[in-house]
Design a protein that fits this description.
The protein is of the alpha+beta class. It has 3 domains: 8-86, Elongation Factor Tu (Ef-tu), domain 3 (Beta Barrel); 105-187, Elongation Factor Tu (Ef-tu), domain 3; 188-220. It is 19% helix and 38% strand. The protein has a 7-stranded antiparallel beta sheet. The longest helix is centred in the C-terminal third of the chain and has 30 residues, at 185-214. The termini are far apart. The model has no long low-confidence stretch (mean pLDDT 90).
């Protein structure tokens, strides 16, 4: 789990093909790794990756074909900047919101407009994700925890303040830039609970109607 508060901006050092998938080597910049071990989780642009080795400037992680196909990591090149966050601990301040590091889909930048000292970004997501996104709710974009300002069908807007522009890769975004989207984990679980309850109710109603029909009270 993560908080969506980016700890450092790193960059891709190299991308190596290994058995059909990829191994990324990442320069972690100012991210402190002295307390990190092999197997630890580190979010790269919001994607939870497992550190398989460390070096003086950072770490390496394997990326499966599934992850390459479902996230924007497949678009990265050597030199590409990336948002980085280590997994949270019980001592970590939850400054953003609970982020799993499991990307729900790829979005794209529709527009960016200067809004006083902030920049207002509009993103578009697949229609299958739009019902998870609510005005004033939380969303994760490339690992960054943000508040949704406005929603219109499958598009939504966020305002990025100067600090976030400076401490994340948002300053590199242009129109049509692809980004990793993770919806609020609470919305996903709530949908599942509601669907399960609805199915249970439907099954219960069906059983009751079947009992009445078998007893000759109704035709069913």
């Amino acid at each position: 789990m993560f908080t969506g508060i980016i700890q450092a901006v790193g960059s891709i050092t190299s991308i190596e093909s290994k058995g059909g998938d990829k191994r990324l080597t990442i320069n972690t910049g100012d991210l402190q790794l002295s307390d990190s071990d092999l197997g630890d989780s580190i979010a790269v642009n919001g994607v939870c990756l497992t550190a398989v080795s460390y070096h003086a400037q950072g770490f390496a992680a394997d990326v499966s074909l599934e992850t390459l196909g479902k996230t924007s990591l497949g678009c990265l090149k050597p030199g590409s900047p990336v948002n980085l966050e280590k997994a949270l601990t019980l001592n970590t301040a939850l400054g953003g919101h609970l982020v799993s590091g499991h990307v729900d889909g790829i979005g794209r930048v529709v527009s960016l407009i200067q809004d006083a000292r902030s920049v207002r970004y509009r993103f578009e997501v697949d229609a299958s994700l739009q019902h998870y996104i609510a005005a004033k709710g939380s969303i994760t974009i490339d690992g960054t925890s943000l508040t949704v300002n406005r929603v219109e069908n499958n598009q939504f807007e966020v305002n990025i303040v100067p600090h976030t522009q400076q401490k994340t890769i948002f300053a590199n975004y242009q129109e049509n830039t692809q980004v990793n989207i993770e919806v609020d984990i609470i919305a996903r679980y709530l949908e599942r609970l509601i669907a399960g309850k609805a199915n249970k109710t439907a099954n219960s109603d069906s059983q009751m109607l079947g009992t009445l029909a078998n007893s000759g009270f109704i035709e069913y």
